[in-house]
Design brief:
The complex is a heterodimer of chains A (268) and B (297). Chain A has 268 residues and is mainly alpha-helical. Chain A is built from eleven helices and no strands. Chain A has a single domain, classed as MetI-like fold (Orthogonal Bundle), CATH 1.10.3720.10. Chain B has a single domain, classed as Orthogonal Bundle (MetI-like fold), CATH 1.10.3720.10. In chain B, α4 packs parallel to α8 and α4 crosses α9. The radius of gyration of chain B is 25 Å and the shape is globular. Chain B starts with 6 loop residues before the first helix and ends with a helix. Classes of the chains: A mainly alpha (268), B mainly alpha (297).
Chain lengths: 268, 297
């Protein structure tokens, strides 16, 4: 009885969660230029326009370059931090790790304006590289959270066995540790890529005259006639995110199987 | 034997290894987070006249921020909106986390969590924009309500107001609230419920006296994770807020990008950070007190 009404509530909640995303493809295939009901005819035109708008393609290229760099750099930093946090004790550990995790809860606008101020004062120009620097800062905590899970799930005795059998610390890391945390690394790369690709505020402040995709989309939102193109773009991005997430989830589960642990939850 | 400093042994010590490993991410955070935050604080004590920055120490920005009703209104409105978003998001999220933790079979839990997190990974900008479509005067919400005869004419107050900002942010931060609550519910020993029931408590009392106090760490985490970033949200107030829903982040952006008054922008950022920090601290202390009080009973 109680479970039943709760279930109805949860279904309604999911409707609320999915409401905007369900609308996206509706408007992307709608031939009318106004984003409102009732819908007009069916068209692929907006999708074609996505691929033929030069500035959009350019912004996408910037975003993908940034997202790939951010994914690699954050995951490297995340590996260092997660390894240190799960395996070793050192002075002020809680404070140090907490500080590295801080961007997770800091309003992004604060991160964005403070970086902007420093860059301007240092006389540096903003652009792709400064967006990468800002995104690495906010993505590293996510990477640490994911990789900490991987390292914590790993059986320490496996590494000790390798050392006892005559492997050097480096070859132990390469032959034993790395393969075991590899699924976590892939999950971290994908999550950081997705966060960076979607991040707006830092890119808005720091991209200068090299707009990322969200910054370009933000500019387009002011022109009602261009909005259907954004809907088509959004549909493609949703499809891409879902594919990336399913891949990340697949690797995370494979990792759990490899370390012989039971599945206890999602990414975070 | 004399105990001389042994470099090799020092490097092999676990403590050293840990510090060496944590050094790169830590140094990165110091350079790109601590230093810029310090710069913002410094800036808030300077002034700017067109493009030149006057580096003499002054409190005039703070004086202006505290006396100008616009700044005060934006700060208090941001706090108000952010607190409403937090309460609504966490209250709406709790039953969902509870359902997934207590009613879903263990092997299907991660599928449910996955289902809940998917919308969160889709373009934030576009999601917010779509709320503008949903809440519009001629949008689906008004259309349905009029169609059902609940209201006679479309509601105008649900778009371009603080309400639409609250709805949109409650949507955007839903997974952030659900996940920590879920994690803390998962940690609760199920036999405690049976014990509560065996001792004659009814379901509601078991929930209030066992489940809720034990879930408080997760609820507190959810509250903080929603409250802190929402106060600095820029996109939502800009797209769906209208003039009544404008928040402090919009003013900070205006100061930096439009008015070329970086020191005033910095001052408002510092004030926003202090406000967030202070309220968060109150929440943490309040929760600690409440759970301690509960235990001593």
């Amino acid at each position: 009885m109680k479970g039943q009404s709760l279930k109805i509530y949860v279904v309604l909640y999911l409707v609320f969660l999915y409401a905007p995303i369900v609308l996206l493809p509706l408007f992307a295939f709608n031939s009318g230029t106004v984003i409102a009901f009732p819908l007009q005819g069916f068209t692929f035109g907006w999708f074609i326009e996505v691929f033929t708008t030069k500035a959009l393609v350019e912004a996408t290229r910037n975003s993908v370059f940034i997202a790939v760099s951010v994914a690699v750099l954050s995951t490297c930093l995340g590996l260092f931090a997660a390894r240190a946090a799960t395996r070793y004790d050192f002075p002020a550990k809680g404070g140090v790790v907490g500080f590295v995790m801080l961007p997770l809860v800091l309003p992004e606008i604060i991160v964005a304006v403070s970086l902007l101020v420093v860059l301007i004062q240092a006389g540096l120009s903003t652009g792709i590289w400064s967006v990468i620097a800002g995104h690495v800062l906010i993505c590293t905590p996510f990477s640490i959270a994911i990789l900490q899970g991987s390292f914590a799930n790993m059986d320490k005795s496996l590494e000790e066995a390798a050392v006892d059998l005559g492997e050097t610390p480096l070859s132990t890391f390469r032959l034993v540790t790395l393969p075991l945390v590899a699924p976590g690394i892939i999950a971290s790369l994908l999550i950081c890529f997705t966060i960076s690709l979607d991040e707006f505020i830092i890119a808005f402040f720091l991209s200068g005259n090299e707009p990322t995709l969200p910054v370009y989309v933000w500019g387009l939102l002011r022109f009602p006639a261009r909005v259907p193109v954004i809907m088509a773009l959004g549909t493609l991005l949703v499809a891409l995110s879902i594919i990336l997430l399913i891949t990340a989830e697949y690797f995370r589960r494979r990792g759990l199987r490899r370390t012989g642990k039971r599945d206890v939850g999602g990414f975070l | 034997m004399a105990r001389s400093f042994d470099l090799g042994r020092f490097l092999r010590r676990d403590e050293t290894k840990g510090m060496v490993l944590i050094a790169p991410p830590f140094i990165y955070a110091v350079l790109l987070l601590a230093a810029p935050l310090a710069a913002i604080v410094l800036f808030s004590f300077w002034t700017q006249d067109f493009m030149t920055i006057d580096r003499s120490f002054t409190l005039s920005n703070y004086r202006e921020a505290f006396t100008d009703p616009l700044y005060m209104e934006l700060l208090s409105r941001s706090l108000r909106i952010s607190l409403s978003v937090t309460v609504i998001t966490v209250v709406l999220a709790f039953p969902v986390a509870y359902f997934v933790s207590f009613y879903v079979a263990p092997e299907r839990k991660s599928l449910w969590l996955f289902l809940i997190t998917i919308p969160f990974w889709t373009s934030y900008l576009i999601r917010v924009f779509l709320w503008r479509v949903i809440l519009a005067y001629d949008g689906p919400v008004n259309g349905t309500l009029v169609g059902l005869g609940v209201i006679d004419e479309p509601l105008a107050w649900i778009l371009y107001s603080a309400n639409s900002v609250v709805i949109t942010l409650a949507h955007a931060y839903a997974p952030f609230a659900i996940l920590p609550i879920f994690v803390s519910l998962e940690k609760i020993d199920r036999s405690l419920h049976e014990a509560g029931r065996d001792l004659g408590e009814n379901r509601v009392m078991v929930f209030l006296r066992v489940t809720l106090p034990l879930a408080m760490p997760g609820v507190l985490a959810a509250v903080l994770i929603v409250f802190i970033p929402t106060i600095g949200d820029y996109v939502t107030p800009r797209l769906v807020g209208g003039s009544d829903g404008t928040m402090i982040a919009n003013m900070i952006q205006t100061q930096f990008m439009r008015l070329n008054n970086a020191p005033m922008g910095a001052t408002l950022s510092v004030l926003a950070m202090l406000m967030v920090g202070f309220v968060s601290l109150l929440m943490i202390l309040g929760t600690l007190r409440w759970t301690r009080g509960g235990k001593s009973k």
